[in-house]
Amino acid sequence: MSQPHSVSRRDFLAASSGVLLAGVVDAAENQPHRAKSELALHGGEKAVKATPQLPVRWGDPERERLNAMLAQDSLFYWKGPQTSLFIEFGDKGFDRLKGGLWESFATNYRMSEPQAAVAAAQLNRLEGIISSRAKLGNALTKQISGLRGVRPHEVHPQDRCGYWFYMFRIDPGAFRCDRAEFVKALAAEGVPASAGYIPVPLHQNPVFQKHGFFAGRWPIKELGLTAMDYSRHQTPEVEAILQTGVRLTLHERMTDDYISNVAEAIHKVAKHYAA
Q: Structural domain of residue 258, as residue ranges?
């Protein structure tokens, strides 16, 4: 015989399960909202959808100079325009046609005739290449400036940077990921990014650490003219740059829209991993 107000086992389990489920739902609703990841790394849409073609830096001007070089009566030095600079700095600063004494220090590249022909034509392209790269690099700097945890490439106002590549630095404490993950996410967005630059500062290369010059001797140090010891030398800022730098490909065939997409990708990744 059942007692008044008694509850069956089935009713008890159903009721208690409902209470527990309600508690779980309430707790979930009260948790801080975290948006679903939109990173391409996690299946989202890429910020950079197209890769610019690599620049082609030679064509008819170079062919014309090469043909002129092949038609001249002597290959001792090419006689075309703009080659005096190469003669002066490509052969120890010595003019073998005029002879005489050295009037300046210069390299000893011994540039060949075909190299001089191509290089002379390429000089006409130089200003356009540098101007385009400077414009694109400065545009990227402007678009990522002020982004928390990101330090853009800095160029002094009185200088012009040709951007062999674009490098920015990240503040490790500003993100919930390491540099490797940050770069991986950028690459997934379509940005040609890589971590760092060279493996170690220059003075940490074996040629300096083991004094691999002057047959293992260092006359300046032996004469007491320097106390430098590369094995103990420290360059903390250089090492910090190599540990926090992110390198991006940049060249003159890129467009303003492409650079804006790259900036969008950097913002996207930085905001996703923001601490």
A: 55-272
CA 169/CA 238 separation, integer angstroms: 12
- Structure tokens belonging to residue 33: 């909202």
Between vectors from CA 66 to CA 60 and to CA 72, what angle results, nearest 5°? 135
Q: Is the pLDDT of residue 196 over 70?
A: yes
Radius of gyration of the chain from its Cα atoms, rounded to whole angstroms: 31
Contacts of 247 (CB under 8 A, 6+ apart): 165, 166, 167, 193, 194, 195, 196, 197
Question: Which residue spans within the chain are E strands per DSSP?
Answer: 150-151, 166-170, 193-195, 245-248
CATH number at residue 265: 3.90.1150.10
Residue 154 has pLDDT above 80, yes or no: yes
Of 223, 188, 181, 256, whose CA–CA distance to 46 is shortest?
A: 188
